[in-house]
Amino acid sequence: MKEVRFNKNWQFSNGCTAEFAAALETGIPTLDSEGNPLEQGAAVAYVEQAVEQLGKDRLDIPKELQDNLERLRSLVEPEPTQGEVVRSNLSLTSRPRTAPLRRK
After folding, report:
1. Helix orientation angle between 63-76 and 40-56, rounded to the nearest 10 degrees
2. Domain count, the chain
3. Closest among 69, 39, 75 to 51, alpha carbons compared
4. Which of 3, 11, 24, 95 is the most exposed place for a label (fewest CB within 10 A)?
């Protein structure tokens, strides 16, 4: 398979969101219905908006759709490594302290 195309409103579909995740995992290019690249970050945002819209409309949010959203997030935003966590924590705690402002 050389590419996967997604029709409008694919982000509401359990099957399509699973297919998008599978395409990301295997490196298959993802395109919208007009043949434009469907970027990973944008795809996650679309699914997040779909889940939010379903909630606003007081409709059931399928567990599979929620699971697929988490799967997509993990593929797009990998967990930080231990070294990245340590560096991040150090930068938070090693900031220079400034003197408090004094009122005149």
Report:
1. 150
2. 1
3. 69
4. 95
Evaluate whether residue 23 is within a structural domain: yes
Length reported for the chain: 104
The residue written with tokens 């995992």 in the block is 25
In sequence order, the β-bridge partners of residue 38 are none
Per-residue pLDDT tens over the stretch 29-46: 999 999 999 999 999 999
How many Å apart are CA 54 and CA 66, to the nearest integer? 11
Q: Is residue 84 part of a domain?
A: no
Who wins on pLDDT, 76 or 6? 6
**Residue 97 maps to a domain:** no
Tokens of 24: 């990301």
Could you tell me the pLDDT band of residue 7, with boundaries at 50, 70 and 90?
Answer: very high
Question: What is the full DSSP assignment across 41-100?
Answer: HHHHHHHHHHHHHHHHTT----HHHHHHHHHHHHHHSPPPPHHHHHHHHHHHH-PPP-PP
Residue 21 within any structural domain of the chain: yes
13 has a pLDDT exceeding 60 = yes
